[in-house]
Design a protein that fits this description.
This protein is an alpha+beta fold and 306 residues long. The chain has 10 helices and 11 strands. The longest helix is centred in the middle third of the chain and has 20 residues. The radius of gyration is 19 Å and the shape is globular. It starts with 6 loop residues before the first strand and ends with a strand.
């Protein structure tokens, strides 16, 4: 095998994970996209970032886009093209709970796969990204789009994808950032049987309600006892912002991934702008600054073109 294409273009959506009780298993693709152009030219690796990270380019050994691409060439026993040029247009905020690291790795993997003529199956692509991430929720949502349930087991990785209605999603991000590693370190290693049963039932209900569009009780079943209580305590103003979103009409609110962003679910005809402004005001009253954006679920996943 050798390189088939000298160019590739990849689009990858953001994602929100957990959705309350579905810790490390549930993901939802978001209509916020990163785009990366690959071109084999010149003699040296060149990486350019535009958009949100125009001033930030990690060294190649720490650049997840480059590392993801190299994983594919290694898996295919092919030399990495040192003359590769990577140009990214970044719209997914980093350290925000919107799956930026999974999207970056996935873009690198899919771009390299396209350069090599698509030797990898979708399951193999997911395995590479999931192993690098340590979990499959964001990776599966960004790869397949829609709502995904991803389980990694010794017998293999199981992924189920579901269509969801075009909810209005308000994502509110406080200025104080946090990393997934920091937030994961807060979590206890054991939980009670009652809490496990609580989350299992709620996870099943969240999937059912999001699929059907019958989300009257979504806020009830989106409650969690495994991770959110520990994480919210370290995000000043977040609990007040959750209550403000509910009071403003949001059908449910949860941490987006490990946070610090919150994601509020609104019906398509609801005034999502009002919910976002209410959350901003709640953070302000708590002495914190925040921003919000409004998006919808992405019904398509990552795409690669030669």
């Amino acid at each position: 095998m050798s390189m088939v294409n000298d160019k590739a273009y990849v689009r990858v959506p953001a994602s929100t994970a957990n959705l309350g009780p579905g810790f490390d298993n549930l993901g939802l693709a978001l209509n916020i996209w990163n785009e990366v152009r690959f071109q084999v030219t010149g003699e040296h690796l060149v990486v350019e970032n535009h958009g949100l990270l125009s001033d930030y380019i990690p060294k190649p050994e720490k650049n997840m886009l480059v590392i993801g691409a190299k994983k594919v060439f290694e898996a295919c026993d092919e030399p990495f093209p040192e003359g590769l040029r990577l140009e990214s247009q970044i719209q997914i905020p980093v350290r925000s709970g919107m799956g930026s690291s999974a999207a970056t790795i996935l873009a690198g993997v899919m771009g390299a796969d396209m350069l090599l003529g698509n030797p990898l199956e979708r399951g193999e692509i997911l395995k590479i990204v999931g192993e690098m991430e340590g979990h499959y929720d964001n990776a599966s949502a960004s790869l397949f789009g829609g709502l995904t349930l991803a389980l990694d087991r010794p017998a293999g990785t199981l992924v189920r994808r579901y269509d969801v209605p075009p909810y209005q999603l308000v994502i509110c991000t406080p200025k104080r950032g946090s990393s997934t590693e920091e937030m994961r370190a807060l979590l206890p290693q054991t939980v009670s049987l009652q809490d496990a049963i609580f989350n299992i039932g709620n996870t099943v209900a969240v999937v059912d309600m999001l699929r059907s569009g019958s989300i009257t009780m979504l806020d009830v079943v989106m409650q969690d006892k495994l991770h959110q209580p520990h994480r919210l305590k370290l995000i000043p103003g977040s609990e007040q912002a959750i209550e403000a979103a509910r009071d403003a009409g949001a059908k449910a609110v949860a941490l987006s991934g490990a946070g610090p962003s919150l994601i509020a679910f609104c019906q398509p005809d609801q005034a999502a702008q009002v919910v976002g402004q209410a959350m901003i005001q709640a953070y302000r009253q708590a002495g914190e600054s925040a921003t919000f954006l409004i998006t919808t679920p992405a019904d398509t996943g990552a795409q690669a073109f030669a």
